[in-house]
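so ive been stuck on this for like two days lol. basically i have the seq below and the ligand is dephospho coenzyme A, smiles is in there too. i just want the complex predicted, nothing fancy, no docking runs or whatever. if the output looks off dont worry ill sanity check it later, just need somthing to start from for the group meeting slides
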Amino acid sequence: MTLILGLTGSIGMGKSTVAAMFADEGVPVFDADAEVHRLQGPEGALVAEIEAHFPGTTSAAGVNRTTLAERVLGDGDALGRLEALIHPAVALARAEFLAAHEAAPFVVLDIPLLFEKGGWDQVDKIAVVSAPADVQRVRVLARPGMNAEKFARILALQLPDAEKRARADFVIPTGGSLGETREAVSGIVRTLSVPRRKPGSST
Ligand SMILES: CC(C)(COP(=O)(O)OP(=O)(O)OC[C@H]1O[C@@H](n2cnc3c(N)ncnc32)[C@H](O)[C@@H]1O)[C@@H](O)C(=O)NCCC(=O)NCCS
Ligand SMILES: Nc1ncnc2c1ncn2[C@@H]1O[C@H](COP(=O)(O)OP(=O)(O)OP(=O)(O)O)[C@@H](O)[C@H]1O
């Protein structure tokens, strides 16, 4: 039986960096955000539908995420319509990933909105990446196209870091060195790599 580890955390906490560390250890990783980028990229499967709902947000290069973000991040109804287009397609890709890795002892699902949109009940264990709020802020504000207002809007859409930590099976610290974070990832890999017995089996 494959154990499913859900990896989540708030904006800029280091999910993508930590997901890459799990992949480096040979663990299959499903990256929900990468799937969204594929669906929204050049010739992406959802570009036409997004253009129909949000005219002027796409081009031959796919979705212009900066423009789309301006339309949806302050408008709950619009964001809900975008999520209704995207989340079912991501769920399908995730199911295909799980079917393709049935034989692995454990896999990682990198799901940014695990707590906010549901999904915690589809994983066996949860790892939350977490850094102090001031470190998170500096990291996020250094990103191109980011500003204090956009950051505040995104934070308001996400469960506070302290609540995520309280609900986690593992907290992966990302406020210190990359080496420390890698150590924490290796420890989780060692803990979870033990093959699980099927319920009721005696071997
Ligand atoms: C709103 C969009 C266009 C903004 O794109 P942009 O490149 O500017 O930002 P990016 O994707 O890196 O997101 C920045 C932060 O916002 C968070 N975020 C994105 N969408 C949402 C959402 N629906 N609710 C809460 N937080 C969100 C991300 O987890 C991340 O922490 C894009 O995130 C999007 O299409 N979102 C809808 C799909 C979705 O829910 N994706 C996240 C889970 S897979
Ligand atoms: N110990 C650490 N662990 C993880 N990331 C770190 C650490 N130290 C510094 N960083 C840096 O912090 C940044 C974290 O960004 P990353 O894209 O991984 O976050 P994210 O949680 O995936 O963001 P988002 O939710 O916005 O997609 C990277 O630039 C990374 O190099």
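The chain is about 50% helix and 15% strand. The pocket of dephospho coenzyme A (ligand 1) is lined by residues 11, 32-33, 36, 65-66, 68-69, 72-73, 79, 82-83, 86, 90, 112-113, 116, 154, 157-158 (CB under 6 Å).
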